[in-house]
Specification:
single chain, about 230 residues, 2-enoyl-CoA Hydratase, Chain A, domain 1, nine-stranded mixed sheet
Amino acid sequence: MDWKTLVEQLFGADHDIVLDGDLLRGSAVFDATPLAIVGTTHHASIGVALALAQARGVLDVVAQHPGRAILLLIDTQGQQLRRRDELLGINRAMAHLGCCIDLARRRGHRVIGLVYDQALSGGFITSGLIADACYALPEAEIRVMRIPAMARVTKISEERLAALSEDNPVFAPGVQNYVAMGGVRALWSGDLAGALRDALATTPTVDLRAEDGRQRGGRRLAASVIQRVLDAA
């Protein structure tokens, strides 16, 4: 779904969201309450400039509109793979974006992520996965690492990883697998405005992804390992 269609279904004409290159930014009136919007489109590659622009959008909301909920609209192919961005410190720029989202949450802003098209790699990790909760449309494409890249990093053969991915969501791309692992809290379909309304009202402010993954069978041990670490601290 393109961003204009999505925004129309969510807010009708009650918004001032504008497109600046690959950056989406603005606000909407939802159930008579202002809502801040920060996001990307065009399968954006997140380079230094775009990461800092998103961070600026989040910080402006924190500074100018205390407590206002933020909706992150996510459509990204991951970090920009250019030498210029690497030399400028893309890792630090993306970490800064993640820190700004975390700051907003700590300051009392409800932060909701929505993958409406594509979410890959670091562009997803430093946005939707740092929100209070991330949701997705059923047709969205989500993955952090392709199997060939995973094979190079883990030194496990592609054939073995492909076999593992058939019954273990941790090794497999796809929106349903991210729901099973708890990374995506739920899928939105049909009444998108109703889904947003429910998310704003019920999304927890504590991180339940590991527990969701345990209950859904996608990450069976993460919650218990986290608890063991906390008990030993």
